[in-house]
Specification:
Elements lengths: L19 H9 L7 E5 L1 E2 L8 E2 L12 E7 L2 E8 L1 H12 L8 E6 L4 E6 L5 E6 L4 H12 L14 H9 L9 H12 L3 H4 L18 H25 L6 E4 L6 H9 L6 E2 L9 H14 L25 E4 L2 H9 L4 E4 L13 E5 L4 H10 L10 E4 L3 H4 L13 E2 L14 E2 L2 E3 L5 H14 L3 E6 L11 H11 L3 E4 L2 E4 L7
Helix pairs in contact: 2-9, 3-4, 3-5, 3-7, 4-7, 5-7, 10-13
This protein binds fe (ii) ion.
Length: about 500
């Protein structure tokens, strides 16, 4: 895979639909008229039940795949469209490390679809079980129910609800579910097309309705709701997925580190793979893989997570910032002195997680660093900050050995010094970095370890609130200036704001 340009990157609204400028940016990177142009199936509107666009939303077995021809810039090209459901399946299958021919199970769980599949050695997709309608929408519904700022219409749906709910579940105290909590969960899980049919005003009598999201009672509800949804799927997996194949996970629920960790640890599967773009950021990739499979019989791609757009140096950095050649020892020193550094090097990450090319970095020690980063990012104070460390020493700091390069699983924190990156439940979603994946970030972690004795940093995304990651100098300068960030790295230079230099 050469590149993946996402509409939300470069400071467009998160989950943005394709914009004209994104199309132009992509065309700039293509040397000739393509052999095949793909359109990932979707709908004309808000909900999956609306009229289909291309091959549409639902369909797993290729029956709805559309193949044809059309003119593009005066040349006849082949066209391909397959369903949204297949885009999730094929992105996870094609990006997984398992060779073509190895049978796999797959789970697609997202806003609308919640199903298990088997993918045979000849890449035939069989749906094993349709487990739950709308698992992602039902998961986020609880947050909207309790959040007084969430509207009743469309189930209070906001893409950001799910991540907040995941953070809040970490605050649960382990007490059993209450009757009121069970009633809410039962009601939510029983609904059909929940966003269309079930305004939260129907739960106006519940003690959770508009009661706020930061209480202990709500954290407990969040944890019970999460566990109920997982258990619903687990029971089906236990009964039906009995051959010990690896499990592929796709759909937006694949960003839930708690659920991913439970699948990894449940013992049903030889291995578990989640791509770094399990949500709809991976749909274009999945449809392209499906087309490659259709036309060439090859359903696998080699890829790097750093396949997004190159950084754009659109303006000179103002002279007010002191410029240094990139010296990792100096950056480590600034971080050790508790400075926050914006870090933008190379090509952007694919998927929604910042993995060290569009990141904010800070020392991992003091909880105050987490609080400062949440203020900088204008996020709720209950949100955790993730750590990054070198893959070869992850076991020193976390209860985990081996790679976890995409921040998709929880690990328990071993080292009591890591207060800024340890969530209230003692976990973190660590990103491991191998030298071959990101050598400069790997070396920075080494320099920070030499300086402080700890090879871990805070790593959170470099983006304006509700926007995809920053991708140009002008946005970095505005962001850093507005938010009092101490310095930033662009390419091979470090820039330090006045008064924030090394002491
Ligand atoms: Fe999706």
């Amino acid at each position: 895979m050469e590149l993946s340009i996402e509409a939300e990157k470069d400071s467009f609204p998160r989950y943005a639909e394709l914009t004209p400028s994104t199309v132009l940016d992509a065309l700039d990177l293509v040397d000739d008229v393509p052999d095949v142009v793909c359109l990932s199936g979707w709908v004309k509107g808000f909900h999956s039940m609306e009229r289909p666009l291309g091959a549409g939303y639902f369909g797993w077995d290729g029956q709805r795949t559309q193949v044809g021809e059309r003119r593009v810039f005066g040349r006849q090209v082949r066209t391909f469209s397959s369903t949204h459901e297949r885009s999730h399946l094929m992105s996870a299958y094609g990006m997984s490390p398992f060779p073509q021919g190895e049978p796999c199970y797959a789970l697609v769980w997202e806003g609308n679809i919640g199903s298990f599949y088997e993918i045979t050695p000849d890449v035939t997709v069989i749906r094993v079980a349709e487990v739950m309608e709308d698992p992602g929408n039902k998961y986020q519904y609880i947050f909207a129910l309790a959040d007084p700022t969430a509207e009743a219409a469309h189930g209070g749906f906001r893409f950001s609800n799910a991540g907040k709910l995941m953070a809040l579940a970490g605050y649960a105290d382990g007490s059993p579910v209450t009757t009121a909590g069970r009633n809410v969960i039962d009601w939510v899980l029983s609904r059909r097309s929940i966003l269309l049919t079930s305004p939260k005003s129907e739960l106006a009598a519940s003690p959770f309705h508009n009661a706020g999201v930061t209480s202990q009672a709500f954290a407990n509800l969040a944890a019970h709701h999460s566990a109920r949804i997982f258990d619903f799927f687990y029971k089906v997996a236990h009964a039906r997925l009995t051959k010990g194949y690896p499990l592929l996970i796709a759909g937006g629920c694949g960003l839930n580190c708690g659920w991913n960790s439970r699948w990894r640890d449940c013992g049903l599967f030889a291995d578990v793979f989640v791509p770094p773009c399990p949500n709809d950021t991976g749909s274009a990739i999945g449809t392209a893989i499906d087309a490659q499979w259709y036309f060439e019989g090859n359903a696998k791609v080699s890829w790097s997570v750093y396949s997004g757009a190159d950084f754009v140096e659109d303006v000179p950095v103002p002279d007010v910032f002191t410029r240094h050649p990139l010296d990792l020892t100096l950056v480590a020193e600034l971080l050790a002195q508790r400075m926050v550094i914006a870090w933008a090097r190379g090509r952007a990450e694919i998927g929604p997680r910042a993995l060290g090319n569009r990141s904010l970095l800070a020392a991992p020690f003091d909880p105050s660093a987490r609080d400062r980063l949440n203020v900088i990012k204008r996020r709720e104070p209950y949100r955790p900050i993730a750590p990054v460390c070198r893959e070869e020493e992850v076991a020193t700091y976390f209860e985990w050995t081996g790679p976890s390069p995409h921040m998709l699983f929880f690990q328990r924190v071993r080292d009591g010094r890591l207060g800024a990156v340890t969530h209230v439940d003692g976990t973190a979603r660590v990103q491991t970095v191998a030298a071959y994946e990101n050598p400069v970030l790997h070396d920075l972690l080494g320099a920070f370890a030499s300086r402080t004795g700890v090879g871990v940093l805070c790593n959170t995304s470099l983006n304006f609130p509700g926007r995809g990651s920053i991708n140009r100098t002008s946005d970095v300068v505005e962001y850093v200036s507005e938010r009092g960030i101490d310095g930033f790295v662009i390419g091979d230079h470090l820039y330090v704001r006045p008064g924030s230099g090394p002491t």
